[in-house]
Amino acid sequence: MTAQQAMIRVYDRVMKSSKQRRYYGGSDFYNFGYWATGATSQREASEALVDTLLARLPTREGRILDVACGMGASTRRLLLTYPPEAVTAINLSASQAAKARQNAPGATVLEMDAAKLSFPDASFDAVICVEAAFHFDTRQRFLAEACRVLKPGGALVLSDILFRRLPASLSDRLGVPKGNLVADIPAYRAQFAAAGFGEVEVEDATDHCLGGFRRNLVAWPAAERARGAMNLSTSIGTTAACRLIAGYFGTVTKAYLLVSARKP
To answer: Percent of the chain beyond pLDDT 90?
Structure first.
């Protein structure tokens, strides 16, 4: 089994777990979300993340490609802005793609590698990728492919994570290829220029995204208990697990970024 296949298997399992679905309010989202707009739940923050990225597009017309769509929650959100026939989504996981088709009826959902897009040149007016490019083999290949399939003047928007340099075993566990580890934001920005993009804007939104997620995750078990949805013993165990997860991502993450770029 390749590292990529192992990563997909982990995501397939975790995204469908009962605890994960409960935390995300049964929304089928699986991201850190955007908390600066006043979200009060992980579902609201995850919706706000998609909306925040869409707001960075110069126009919301034409065709859009949702890359690494997961179980289709982001694709479903796109249908509030785009007609179904204008939306295409891709994911490597057959299981997640099947769920995405249910979540986004009318949209085109395909199994496809983000670093090897099988679309013709200049197929889309926009590309969106929510919290996934650090997994691709490699991010640089994805950026080149995204630029290729965009029409001139088209835009790419994404949220992305810069991870600290870690032992190979931990990088493998995170599903982050070694080639996706960059030194800093200037080096990250240079990857977009190398792929052919201009007008690259990179916002460090670590506190608005990762920070908000960590705070909400740690507080969630107590909130569930307060509303009678979790008993004391379950709350204690869940709190310990949530603190562990929050601490883990705080340790391995260097920065959480919101990015936009244009194809000349």
So the answer is: 83
Distances (CA, A) of 179 to 107, 118, 215, 217, 251: 32, 22, 30, 30, 20
Q: What does the alpha-carbon distance between residue 119 and residue 146 come to, in Å, rounded to a whole number?
A: 10
C-alpha triplet 14, 15, 19: angle, nearest 5°:
75
Calculate the average pLDDT of the chain.
Answer: 94
pLDDT of residue 10: 81
> Is 38 buried (19+), middle (13-18) or exposed (0-12) by CB count in 10 A?
exposed
C-alpha torsion angle, residues 123, 120, 192, 110 (rounded to 10): 80
Residue 38 identity? G
**What pLDDT does residue 170 have?**
66
Termini Cα distance of the chain: 40
User: What number of CA atoms fall less than 13 Å from residue 198's CA on the CB side?
Assistant: 5
For residue 201, list its beta bridge partners.
Answer: 260
Closest by alpha carbon to 98, among 86, 83, 111?
111
Is residue 158 over pLDDT 70?
yes
